[in-house]
Amino acid sequence: MGNIKLAVPEFFYYEIASGIRKAIMRDYITAIEGQKAIDYILQLDIKTYPIPNVKIVYNIAQSYKRSIYDSIYIALAQIMEAEFWTTVMIISANQPTVYHTSSRKHKSCNACKGHAVNRIYSSM
């Protein structure tokens, strides 16, 4: 296994901060715990990249039947010629293939309808 490098869109840290802020407002964590979480995530020093061109993102959203938000991550992976990993699937940027890593079918994923989990299906 090689060296793993994480790449995220430039709004990633704000997205994390927003989730932490919501957890504080809902009394799931304290403000002090929230600050510690922010400090921790910043220590990871994950490299951020500009959000890809909106036309590229839109075309990916149409092709994969995904949200624009999800498609930003997919577009970034394709531009970087990297794999896109989520808890639901891995989409190889070089070959638009969906790899399912969960033991259940996902109703929101068009590739999941009527197939055995963990099989590989082309999304295009």
What is the approximate shape?
A: globular
Radius of gyration based on Cα positions = 17 Å
What is the mean predicted local confidence, pLDDT? 75
How would you classify the quaternary structure? Answer: single chain
Number of helices: 4
Q: Give the number of DSSP strands.
A: 6
Number of domains: 2
Class by SSE composition: alpha+beta
Low-confidence stretches: 95-106, 111-124
Biggest pleated-sheet summary: 4 strands, antiparallel
How much strand content do the residues show?
15-25%
**Distance, first to last CA:** 29 Å
The main sheet orders its strands as 3-4-5-6
Helix content: 40-55%
SSE order in H/E notation? Answer: EHHEHHEEEE
Structure description:
The protein has helices at residues 12-25, 31-43, 54-64, 68-79, and strands spanning 7-9, 47-49, 83-85, 89-92, 97-100, 120-122. With 124 residues, the protein is α+β, with helices and mostly antiparallel strands. It folds into two domains: 7-49; 54-122, no CATH class. It has a four-stranded antiparallel β-sheet with strand order 3-4-5-6, with helices on one face. A hairpin with a 3-residue loop joins strand 3 and strand 4 (89-92). Helix 1 (12-25) packs antiparallel against helix 2 (31-43) and helix 3 packs across helix 4. The longest helix is centred in the N-terminal third of the chain and has 14 residues, at 12-25.
